[in-house]
Amino acid sequence: MRVERLNKDKVKIFMSYEDLTERGVAKDDIWSDAPEVHELLNDMMDEVYDELGFEIYGSVAIEVYALPTQGVIVIITRGDDVSKEQHAVYQVDVRLGNHSYITFAFENFDHLVNAAKDLNRFVEEKGAVYSYNGQYLLLLLEEDFKVDQYESITAILSEYGSISSLTKDFLAEYAKPIIQENAIKTIKEYF
C-alpha cells in the first residue's frame, strides 16, 4: 500500500490486488458493503494518519478507481465544513470511478513521447495532452481504443507514468491544453 498526500484535505492510496488479498478482500468485493471492506477502509484511514498525520473527521468522500491489472486507487477527501472538535463517526460517500476514459500523468515530456510511441499498435492517432502542476497528462477516451485493449494500454502507460485521478472535466477547466486532438499521432510525427 502506497500513501500520498494530494493537498491538505485529500490523500491518495494505491493498493495492489496482492495487498487486498493479504487483507482478506477479494478483487470483486471492493465494490460491496461487506464487513471486510469496512475494516479495510478503517485500516487505510489509520495508516494514512500514522504515515501522514492526516486526521479523518467529519464528512469523508471516498472515490475508488479500479486498475484492471494493478490494483485500486482510493482517494479520500475530508469535508472542510466540519470542525476538528467533532471527532464523531464519519460519513462515507463512496463514488466508483467507472469513467469512460483513462488519464495518465507523466513527470516529463520524454516519458510521454516514449509512451505514445509504444501505444502505436493500440492507439494510432487519438488522445489529448494537458499540462497541470508540472506534469503532462494524457487523456484517452473510451472511443479512442477497443475495450479489450484496456489492460494492454494501461500496462504500457504504467511503464512511463502513473494513473491520475484528475477527471476529464477537471482537465478541461484547470489544465493547460497542449495537444487537444490526435495527440498520439502528433507526438509520433514531431518527436
Automatic annotation (TrEMBL):
Pfam families membership: MecA (PF05389)
Domain of life assignment: Bacteria
Family the UniProt entry places it in: Belongs to the MecA family.
Designated name of the protein: Adaptor protein
The organism of origin for this protein: Desulfuribacillus stibiiarsenatis
